[in-house]
Structure formats: structure tokens, C-alpha cells
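Lecture notes, part 5. Sequence design as translation. It can be helpful to think of inverse folding as translation between two languages: the language of shapes and the language of residues. The source text, in C-alpha cells, appears below.
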């Protein structure tokens, strides 16, 4: 999707994927800076490690405690730090600046793919790993009214509930299933990656027809057992393709300073993940 987006913007850039062991991450970032790469994306398990490795943290990375995008910057003739892509010549040092584009991508996908705004919503969040934590904090920041957290390792859900309550006192947060209906069920567990996986929630405790929308961060398969069950229960659904797309589109905008060609990137992503005839990702809002 990045190469398609860059080509559509007329940029003679290439996006490459490299496997990097966690112990080599400092050398990988330093090497990219030395070679004047314009930027990097990082995925699990590097997002937390990178927080202490970049020269500067953008507010987004500071707020959500994870870096998924790095932009390399140099000084212009007035001594202001600019993205390398905007400098015609490079005089002094290069610095790395860490951003987080994942958190906003969750809210954007809910809004654009499911036409639902989290403000004032009641949300059942499944999972308290890295993605679950980001989702809980970002949704709390967006002004959800109540958040229920479920996680296999309940202690992690409790820790997250304490963090949310401390940072966002207006949000009613608890560990367990809601007794009443919710607007949003959001799966941030890895359950559903495999066809034989169990559902990430106990539908005896929370029948899915009590939810308006069900959002699954997993995008492969296009329809997880949770999304299948949610559709049968009459919920509107979306998988994680939109989230993946929007975090990438935001990264391209940070590197290039240009609006990302989102539909070009979406088509490329669908083609890459689902093949030439894309499976329908989100329901039409
Ligand atoms: N669409 C996107 O752009 C996007 C972005 C990020 C992540 N994701 C997806 O989100 C999911 C979580 O990613 P992550 O980075 O948060 O991973 P993570 O930090 O490893 O967390 C994994 C989560 O899944 C739970 N889990 C794993 N195996 C389980 C099982 N057998 N039964 C019940 N719960 C289980 C874990 O519970 P415990 O705490 O008990 O281990 C934890 O809550 C993944 O499927 C990933 O592909 C999608």
C-alpha cells in the first residue's frame, strides 16, 4: 500500500520490509538515519522499544507510549527541523522523531468504516495487549462514557483499567461484561487469526445482539468467527483493514507532507491481502 501510495503521489521512493531482531533495533534505526532514509514504520515487538531509541518523541507517541512511525529530520537554512523529504540539501545532523499513527487509525476506522463516533458510547473491549491498551486509552481520550475490559489474563485488564481510570477519570471503566447493551464491541485479541479459534468473548455472558457494531482488529481472515457471529446477530461489522490502512496513510503524510491517496492505498492493500478479487472488508456504513 505504501509503494502504491508513493507512486500515486509521483514520489520516486521505495518502501521496503526488513526483519530486525529486537536487540538490533538501535543499530537498524541508526543505520537508516546514516543512510538518510526518510522514515520507518515499526511493528511488534519494536513499538515500545523505539520510544527510548528516537531522538524526539511527537506528542502522539508520548501520549500513547508507543512508536510505530519514525520520520528523519534535518535543519533548514533557518535552523528549523524539517522532514528530510522537504530539504533540498542537507547541512547538519539528522534526527529521528517518533510518532504513533495507530491510535488515531482506530477512531478513524470506526468513523469512516462504521459511521460510529466513540464519544458518549459504551464499549466492550476484548484484549489488553499492546493494541488493546492503545485502543482503551484512545477511546477514553475520545470521550466514551463507559468501558468494559475483558482479557484472558485478568490482571492485565485490571492494570489497564487502573491506568484508564487514572488518566481519564470521567470514563466509567470496569473489568467484566456489561449487563446492558453497548454501541461498540472491539476485538483486540489475537483470537480469530486461525479458523479454529474460539470466540474472544463468552456469548453466554454477552450475546452479540446487544451490540450495535463489532469491530475486529484482525484483517486476515477478512471475516473472523467473531465477525461471522456478529453479522448473524444483526450487528454492523468491520475488520482491521481500515485501521491498517489509516495508520499507513497517516505515516505517508508525515513523511511526504502530502495528503495520502487513501483509496489507491486501500485497493493495493486489499489486493495484497485478499488477492485480485478482494473480500469485502467493512460493511458499507
Ligand atoms: N489492524 C491493525 O492495524 C492492527 C494493529 C495492531 C494489532 N492488530 C491485531 O490485534 C491483535 C492484538 O495485537 P497486539 O499487538 O495487542 O498483540 P499482543 O500485545 O500480543 O496481545 C495479544 C492479546 O490477545 C490475547 N490472546 C492471545 N492469545 C489468546 C488466547 N488463546 N485466548 C485468549 N486471548 C488471547 C492476549 O491475552 P493475554 O494478555 O492473556 O496474553 C492479549 O490480550 C492481533 O490479532 C493483531 O493482529 C491489528
Amino acid at each position: 500500500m505504501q509503494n502504491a501510495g508513493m507512486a500515486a503521489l509521483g514520489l520516486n521512493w521505495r518502501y521496503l520490509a526488513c526483519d530486525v531482531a529486537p536487540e538490533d533495533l538501535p543499530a537498524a534505526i541508526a543505520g537508516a538515519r546514516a543512510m538518510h532514509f526518510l522514515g520507518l514504520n515499526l511493528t511488534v515487538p519494536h513499538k515500545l522499544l523505539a520510544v527510548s531509541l528516537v531522538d524526539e518523541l511527537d506528542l502522539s507517541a508520548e501520549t500513547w507510549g508507543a512508536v510505530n512511525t519514525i520520520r528523519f529530520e534535518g535543519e533548514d537554512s533557518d535552523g528549523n527541523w524539517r522532514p528530510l523529504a522537504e530539504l533540498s540539501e542537507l547541512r547538519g545532523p539528522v534526527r529521528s522523531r517518533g510518532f504513533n499513527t495507530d491510535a488515531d487509525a482506530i477512531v478513524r476506522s470506526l468513523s469512516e468504516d462504521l459511521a460510529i463516533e466513540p464519544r458518549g458510547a459504551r464499549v466492550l473491549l476484548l484484549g489488553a495487549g499492546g493494541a488493546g491498551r492503545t485502543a482503551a486509552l484512545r477511546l477514553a481520550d475520545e470521550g466514551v462514557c463507559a468501558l468494559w475490559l475483558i482479557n484472558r489474563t485478568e490482571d492485565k485488564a485490571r492494570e489497564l483499567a487502573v491506568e484508564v481510570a487514572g488518566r481519564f477519570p470521567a470514563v466509567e471503566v470496569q473489568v467484566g461484561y456489561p449487563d446492558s447493551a453497548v454501541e461498540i464491541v472491539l476485538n483486540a485479541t489475537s483470537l480469530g487469526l486461525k479458523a479454529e479459534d474460539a470466540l474472544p468473548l463468552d456469548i453466554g455472558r454477552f450475546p452479540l445482539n446487544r451490540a450495535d457494531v463489532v469491530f475486529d482488529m484482525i484483517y486476515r481472515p477478512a471475516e473472523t468467527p467473531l465477525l461471522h457471529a456478529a453479522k448473524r446477530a444483526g450487528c454492523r461489522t468491520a475488520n482491521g483493514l481500515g485501521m491498517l490502512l489509516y495508520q499507513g496513510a497517516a505515516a505517508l503524510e508525515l513523511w511526504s507532507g502530502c495528503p495520502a491517496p487513501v483509496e489507491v492505498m486501500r485497493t493495493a492493500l486489499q489486493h495484497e491481502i485478499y488477492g485480485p478479487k478482494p473480500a469485502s472488508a467493512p460493511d458499507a456504513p
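The translated text above is only one of many valid answers, since several sequences can fold into similar shapes. The chain is about 35% helix and 20% strand.
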